[in-house]
What does this fold into?
Amino acid sequence: MSDEFVVRPGGPLRGTLRVPGDKSISHRALICNALAPGEAQIYGLLDSADCRSTMTCLRQWGVEFDESDDRILVRSPGQDEFRPADGVLDCGNSGTSIRLLSGVAAGLPFRSGFDGDHSLRSRPMRRVLDPLEQMGVRVDSAATAPFWVDGGTESLRGFDGELPVASAQVKSCIVFAALRAGEPSRIVEPGPSRDHTERMLAAMGAQIEADSATIRIHPGAPLRPRDVEVPGDISAAAYWMIAAAMIPGSELNLPNVGVNPRRTGVIDALRQMGARIELGNLREASGEPVADLVVRGGPLHGVLLDDEMIVRAVDELPTLAVAAALAQGVTEIRDAAELRVKESDRIAATASMLRAMGVEVEERPDGMRVVGGQLQGATVDSHGDHRIAMSAAVAALASESESGPTTIRRADAVEISYPGFWRDLDRLRHVAV
Ligand code: S3P
It folds into this structure.
């Protein structure tokens, strides 16, 4: 695919679109089933570069995957029988792979090395390595990848305390290590990060109890493989949700989207801005709440987004900032310093994209202030970040029709989490009236 994509301003979005499988749940379905000896089927796994990174690493430890059209079979000898990787584990661009798998490595009786691409090498790793060290794991690292984990169960102690950041990647890392420790763990999280790991492990037989802020783990319970049906990714749906909410006259159906309450900050934020979003056919799939969404376009107004909402909408904030650019009044995003250490500095990248499109934005250390107005077509750069590329596409769709198309540079970044994004955009355009 070309690394530039041109998006013309679009009319209302109408029709039905099924979004790809949830990225976070896909990683966990692969990793949790790899820990258990035996076989499990995963339906609806997200086929993207990030999930491929997790599979590549797990294969190095001896896990096998048989892929067919609609599912993947995981066949694993179980964590006890993993073999040392032949070289460093390359996690590509994937923060979820490197952080979750370093927790698994803590319970393996050999040394594992971790590395990734240029972006991943710049992301903070002490947030997982410090708590692992507290558990008695020997790590060999500066503050970033590459790093090495000397695992083993003999000296692995339980974890007792609060994590340094409200991050599901950090929490999951420590949970995977705690499953193999010699004593129970109590993990306190500073904010309500996504709980897919806890849900899946509990369903597989782990002794894990979680309340609003504390997870307790009693190690040693054997894990059973479990088939997983991965729901549609709310973070992928969010691009279309936000585009539809911003463009008057839109009416878009997004069936089968995961609506775990720790992921639905984007729905709450859009509703606060005045968007009309309905959740129908609420049900459960593999222990996760799922619903069919209907979004209708209309006028939006500015809001304050802060506190626990930020954790529950962390990946959607750049696109919510795009919605803010068309909303009436001012929107402020606070408490979101974490955005600076994602695949790119998403505060800087979003602010520069919006400014290029004619929006008044003030960048702050922990967020931004966006003055609602109009979006003008422009040339913008994804900074190699999938979520910035897709947020720019939403901005382009909602831009003034006379202002011309938007050219998105490094548009192929979407491969990380949503390889069919440009195809889906074209499809929605064709059903648009
Ligand atoms: C993820 C957690 C979030 C999110 C990332 C996926 C996960 O990161 O930004 O895209 O699957 O655990 P943090 O947990 O570091 O906030």
